[in-house]
Amino acid sequence: MARKAIGTTITEHLLKQQRSHPQATGSLTHLLSELIVAAKVISREVNKAGLVDILGATGDVNIQGEQVQKLDIFAHRIITERMQHVGQLCCIASEEYADLIDIPPNFPKGDYILLMDPLDGSSNIDVNVSIGTIFSILKRQSSGSNVDYQLSDALQPGYRQVAAGYFVYGSSTILVYTTGTGVHGFTLIPSVGEFLLSHEDIKIPERGNIYSVNESNYAYWDNNTRDLVNYFKTMDAETKRPYTSRYVGSLVADFHRNLLKGGIFMYPADTKDPKKPKGKLRLMVEANPMAMIVEQAGGYASDGHGPVLEVEPQSLHQRTPLFIGSKQDVLLAESFISGNRR
Ligand code: AHM
Ligand code: MG
Asked: Measuring from atom 15 of ligand 1, which residue has the nearest CA?
């Protein structure tokens, strides 16, 4: 009774979810619990970032050709080192690292693969705007304890994810996760160091009134994308337009707001950088985990032509256009982008 008064802990919730999957062994629960510990450490560092020498760029450029921030590397290291020890993983993929990361030879191994963006929204680190950690968990398809994992084990389409989630380091630190039975949100109580259930069984509104996109890319979009954004901005009483515009520039923050309030987040293909014709966001560590979450919450994620979750990945760091959020808004976006709108 008293325990319920202070809320359900994430541990209690994970165990309850585990019991609802009859074949579960506890491995996934163990893995997620360890990831949560790593995120608490990152949250602590983010909260004191202005006070210690952890802000700014390291001077290096990552596999994506982007400036590496000190906190990016810190987050990558904290998660990788902790998760290599848990015994449930066969390898790790990180936005910050070109290849799959092995589990060291003498460490116990398992069948899961962790894919992550350790610190999403890095351009916002130095200015105290929300950032986050995004994760996706797959189960390897190749079998046999003596068989090494294959790259193809990590290159599975998003519908095969067994869990996905994100941490937002914002006005509070929030964890949102799914293991395929709904989407649940937890808020970190810093004084207790515990995540407590704050958003149970999240459902995204069927239709919203927010559009989130970096509109400064307008000149680099094709006509279908411009028509879509113009549509959201056009006045029409019946469909309650114009929509309002909200764009933080951290996917986790933009996605989280729209998940709770309804609306659409877009990062379309553009011609800004010939090396990134599909836009900026990465399929495996950004689009797929958010797509699993949004679909579990009743929404939809599209690459403009079909479900993100059905894209067959070709490489670890491939990019994808992303239209994600309230189902009606994303279906409408898909009809514009694919040229099917009459
Ligand atoms: P990052 O993972 O290197 O931080 O980059 C991804 C971020 C997303 O969080 C965000 O949606 C997007 O980049 C913003 O890009 P832009 O500045 O082009 O609008
Ligand atoms: Mg990112």
From this structure: 249
